[in-house]
Structure formats: C-alpha cells, structure tokens
Design brief:
31% of the residues lie in helices and 31% in strands. It is α+β, with helices and mostly antiparallel strands. It has an eight-stranded mixed beta sheet with strand order 1-2-3-4-5-6-8-7, with helices on both faces. A hairpin with a 3-residue loop joins strand 7 and strand 8. The chain is globular.
C-alpha cells in the first residue's frame, strides 16, 4: 500500500486520519443526519470511530478534511479504486465524501473535491465515479458543480436505510481538463 500523502487547499489540509482524531470524528459522525445522507450507520462511540479510522479510513486514498483555522477535522473525502461498485474501467476510481453539519454550505466539500480530483487525475486515473441518494440535492449539486454528469439512476438495498434510489455520476479526465481551461 502506498504511503499516505497530504493535499493542501486555501482553507484545508487533506491528510490521513489519525487515532487521536477519534473524538472529533465521533462528534461529527454520530450525527444521524450525516449517516443517513451518506448511507451508513451513525457512529455509536469514540471507540467505534477509532476502529473506523484504523480500518475503513486506513486507506491512503482517504483524507480527513482539516480546517487550517482550527486544525480540526471537519469531514472526510476519499478517492479509491476499491471497492469496484461503480467502476467500469481499470483506471477508474470512486469518490466519496461527507462534511460535518456545522460546516455545510461553506464550500469545503467543493474545495476538497477539486484538490482530490486534481491529484487523482495526475496519478493516471481516467474516470471518477460518484453517487448520492436521489433526494440529497446538496451532494448532487456538488458533483455537478465539479463537472460530473449523470450516468444513470439505480435502486439498491442499503443495509441501514432499506431500498434507496441513487444517482450515479461520472467525470472523465478529459472532461475535467476541458472544464479547467
């Protein structure tokens, strides 16, 4: 597994999660609204958050969004080639993200996504896939604002929420590059 890297934006440092981030992660991820919008069960304890840092967030493609002002994580973003849920090609990746509720509507997710996409496309990824629940308009608008286009809608059984409708979007390196010029 490659060594984790840090990415930088004007207001954020995107870095690997650390075990000492567990209390902050818990304070953000225990919010039921976050879990429901992202499709996972809200964290039940600091220990559970620490376990998620040590397992799910251990991938070097997963970043804590850390506010430069407070030096505190405010959310999470990841670009990953595994699992192969949406991918259609060998150089595709999937993006996932969430931001703590008190940081919504401040542009942090857009800022983080732009940095992660730039990094991913610079490493040879040719297409990035993203998905959100159909009724999560903030996430859908974020993906579209960053250049993603709708590929399809689908229905699947979420283990925590039951049957849900998702919108699957994609962004090719070529589309991304043309949108930057």
């Amino acid at each position: 597994m490659p060594e984790p890297i840090e990415l930088s934006t004007p207001r954020l440092v995107l870095r690997h999660w650390r075990p000492e981030d567990a209390p902050v992660l818990y304070s953000l991820a225990s919010d039921p609204e976050i879990g429901n919008l992202a499709g996972w069960k809200p964290h039940g304890s600091v220990e559970e958050s620490r376990e998620i840092i040590n397992t799910v967030f251990a991938d070097p493609g997963v970043f804590a969004m850390v506010s430069r002002m407070s030096n505190t994580p405010i959310g999470c973003i990841g670009l990953n080639r595994e699992p192969k849920i949406m991918r259609k090609g060998p150089k595709d990746a999937e993006i996932g993200y969430w931001v703590g509720r008190r940081y919504w509507n401040q542009g942090y997710a857009t800022e983080a996504m732009e940095a992660v996409l730039a990094h991913g496309f610079s490493t040879g990824i040719t297409k990035v896939w993203g998905q959100c629940f159909e009724d999560n308009l903030a996430s859908l608008n974020l993906l579209k604002r960053c250049g993603f286009t709708v590929d399809h809608r689908g229905v699947f059984e979420n283990p925590y929420l039951g049957e849900v409708v998702t919108v699957v979007l994609s962004l090719s390196r070529k589309q991304w590059a043309s949108g930057r010029s």
